[in-house]
Amino acid sequence: MQERLPLFPLNNVVYPGEPLNLHIFEPRYIELINDVLASDGIFGMPVFMGVKLDYGTTLMITKVEKIYGDGRMDIKTVGMKVFRVKKLENPAEGKLYSAGDIEYVDDVENGTYENVAALKRYIKDVLVRLDLKKDVQIRSEVKSFNVAHLAGLSQAKKYELLTIDNEKDRQEYLIHHFEKLLPILEGLHETKARVMMNGHFKNFDPLNF
User: What DSSP line would sit under 93-130, residue for residue?
Assistant: First the structure.
């Protein structure tokens, strides 16, 4: 099913369920947000990759944090659904901002227990090795989009994950990424330990000739 939405293109990937804070300052996007607030609070954020707009996520405004005297504003949003841009109008007729016909991506919920268990182990290992958390508690209902921001993905890989339309394949994508990432982090952890030791006094026993 196609739908027409105001579009806010950005070189950023937002996953369903992921919160995103935005500072709105360009006149076209101030107009967009004001129009959206007067409607259902939903707009599309297609990811600007290279020279094209293809996949993106709908965002819902959850709170207007602050409105400045010149019209700028700080807003809180949350990702909703993944979509593909079918037709782009830039700018939309009578507007400063762009709009487009979008089609929602059907998402297959076919995750596996084994993959979820592996993802939880990998996430804990990553956070511990980065000294971000010592005791990590992860909820049992882990899904790929919920934990992808902890995977250290490049922007291109974050986008690639967004385009995968079923949970099982996304889980396997993340597991494959972690399998390559963890040996690198292990090497960095050991390097960090050696660097830390270089700043300490060392007590060497003198050689007895």
Answer: TTSSSEEEEEEEPP-B----HHHHHHHHHHHHHHHHHT
Distance CA 5, CA 35 (A): 11
Q: Estimate the crossing angle of helix 155-162 against helix 167-198, to 10 degrees.
A: 160
Q: Which of 46, 88, 81, 74 has its CA nearest to residue 60?
A: 81
User: Model-level pTM?
Assistant: 0.83
- Which of the residues in the chain have pLDDT under 70? 1, 131-140, 187-209
206 within domain boundaries: no
How far, in Å, CA of 54 to CA of 31, rounded? Answer: 23
Residue after which a domain boundary falls, among 104, 138, 173: 104
Instruction: Compute the residue count for the chain.
Output: 209
Domain interval for residue 71: 2-104
Give 23-36 pLDDT, tens digit per residue.
999 999 999 999 99
The two three-digit tokens of residue 150, written as one number: 């902890």
Q: What is the largest CA-CA distance in the chain?
A: 91
Interval 69-84: pLDDT, tens: 999 999 999 999 999 9
- Residue 146, in any domain of the structure: yes
Distance between CA atoms of residues 56 and 119, nearest Å: 24
